[in-house]
From TrEMBL:
Pfam families on file: Gal_mutarotas_2 (PF13802)
Limits of the Glycoside hydrolase family 31 N-terminal domain: 73-292
Any one GO BP annotation for this protein: N-glycan processing
Provenance organism: Mustela putorius furo (European domestic ferret)
MF-aspect GO terms: alpha-1,4-glucosidase activity; carbohydrate binding
Designated name of the protein: Neutral alpha-glucosidase C isoform X5
InterPro entries named among the record's database cross-references: Gal_mutarotase_sf_dom, Glyco_hydro_31_N_dom
Gene name in the database record: GANC
Top-rank taxon: Eukaryota
Amino acid sequence: MEAAGKEEISVEDEAVDKNIFKDCNKIAFYRRQKQQLSRRSTYKASLDSATIGKDSTKFRIINETTKVPLLAEIYGIEGNIFRLKINEETPLKPRYEVPDVLTSKPSTVRLISCAGDADSLVLTDGKGDLKYHITANPFKIDLVSEEEVVMSINSLGQLYFEHLQIPLEQRATKENKEDTSADTSQEDQDDLGLWEEKFGKFVDIKVNGPASIGLDFSLHGFEHLYGIPQHADSHQLKNTSDGDAYRLYNLDVYGYKIYDKMGIYGSVPYLLAHKLGRTLGIFWLNASETLVEINTEPAVKYTVTQMGPVAAKQKVRCRTDVHWMSESGIIDVFLLMGPTPSDVFKQYSYLTETSFPDLSVLPPLGFSLGSLHSCHPGSFLRKCALEVHFLHLCRYKNISFSTFTLD
């Protein structure tokens, strides 16, 4: 007689309730950046006072609304790597910079100016064909290879930088108090999470106020993007214009939803873009909660009147815009310019020594190469049933291992 009421296991039935985690609209720094960027506040670079040193080129970036200056530093790094750092020129206290990811101080290549004036500056390392075109107003950087713009930085004007502030209760002068009240009401401060952010029963106190950062990158001719793990979604990154951004925030989530952009387990702010003839990477060195928006514009067909020397070579080009937003820290980004996939892996490995294609770091031999780990929260009987099933599956698929860890 056939057994009745046979149990069926559904992944969706066991999926975690997403309401216990934040989506974009519940993240204060995301709301603030979206609100401010809608007003199109622009930055201008002071290139007439730029200094080109042995290790880096430095210049000031000024917000035309607040007049508060930022300090930009551009580095050429061996192996076709470009580094951009943007920080407060005179911060209230040192902002956090990630100390332990880079294995050592990267070897820099001196950049030289091959053209420039008060409105623009062109830098090159003198070795390859890559050039860095910096435009002063509005601030923008174009990375050009063989007369083709490969990547643009801040072409959408989404540079965003919140400056550290003295706590409200410590502002003694009447002038400061008036400035604060004029800037935003108490209700707006609570809504935007400037000094305190609440989610459920959790309260996040921000001693020095809001400190988020953001910057956009336009990848010309690219539509295939990968990386920024870890998400239970498709290998190729999707457009986020019709939904939540990709969230980089470590969460040990049991029963996470599949085909979803919510963050799980680990987060690596490393993105790859690929097209015919070139691969490049963006390594956003920031350890705080980060959101990444991706928007691919369809291919543009140039008309005869639009054609120039560059347009004539590639008449149809798509463009993908990547907008990075982090809760705190500084803007510290490495652009791995390839041009081949192998080159990009080597460049990332050179910075972090975590790329297995070069075998820069091997896992502990004798354990990691031959062990499996199983973690199934739930009842004891259910865990046993799942693990026994898993062991039979490994045997059936001829998957060998020397140890099996239950937890």
